[in-house]
Amino acid sequence: MKEEVKKNMALSNSLYRAQERDELILHYQPQVNIDTGKIVGLEALLRWKHPKMGMIPPNVFIPLAEKNGMINSIGLWVLETAVKQNKKWQDMGFPHLRMAVNLSIAQFTNPNFAKDVDQILRDTGMNPKYLELEITESIATRQAESSANILNRLKELGVSVSIDDFGVEYSSLNRLKLLPIDRIKIDMQFIHGIEVSEKDKAIIKVIINLANSLGLEVLAEGVETDTQLKFLSKNMCHDVQGYYFYKPHSIMEIEKILRKGVGRI
Ligand code: C2E
Ligand code: MG
Ligand code: MG
Predict the structure, then answer these.
(1) Which end of the chain has fewer CB atoms at under 10 Å, N or C?
(2) pTM to 2 decimals?
(3) Atom 25, ligand 1: which residue's CA is nearest?
């Protein structure tokens, strides 16, 4: 326990310099429409290339950044970098794709956030419709009114909003009705249960039906197998993200994939 705390404190301290030293990088994971086999979007996923410890995954250092207050500046860097990169790819002649960026609660509730998003979109000149902000259910379900106000301001900019990891936290259906959401991302825990659990299959069907009935888009995360893909396709979930098609990749690898122009269908 003590060792763990010490290690986290050391990591947290070196995170202050990571940004200045360009140790933070983004990988991008393609999202695929299974009917057309085409890539329809990319999700920006943060990594920390630590000089001594190698690649540190976001689940380890984002909670530290949330605690030490760095998440706002890191989050802004992520947003700016991902939008710039997406605009660059569009200008290079690749198909125009949606870029999804994950948000932490502190960013979402930062009073300057919508203004910052607007500024980034203006500076890069990317059409806002290609930016999707991913929030979690815990963000969506806290203080309904303030969340709705923030989301409405963001929506006025022309960006879209999705709920990430849907189904694992406290899902308020009423909130889903009230908030201006565009897409639900089904948590991968359910997708991985497709082969083994009738209950997971039932939950996925309910989420897909719910999305379809509410006029929301739906995307399945963590798709790894043919069986999972077939089940999703049969149940009208057409957009997927997962190792079956692509892992998160570096800029260079993504460009290779985009040049080929097709998914693994
Ligand atoms: P997430 O947003 O739900 O992202 C999906 C995670 O699932 C990614 O992990 C991705 O690499 C992984 N994944 C994708 N397909 C598959 C698959 O087929 N099988 C399996 N087993 N895993 C798959 P990653 O990159 O380690 O990110 C973990 C989480 O860290 C993200 O979950 C997100 O919540 C958070 N995160 C990542 N980047 C950022 C960021 O820039 N800002 C914030 N606030 N959070 C971030
Ligand atoms: Mg996400
Ligand atoms: Mg997720």
Answers:
(1) N
(2) 0.96
(3) 45
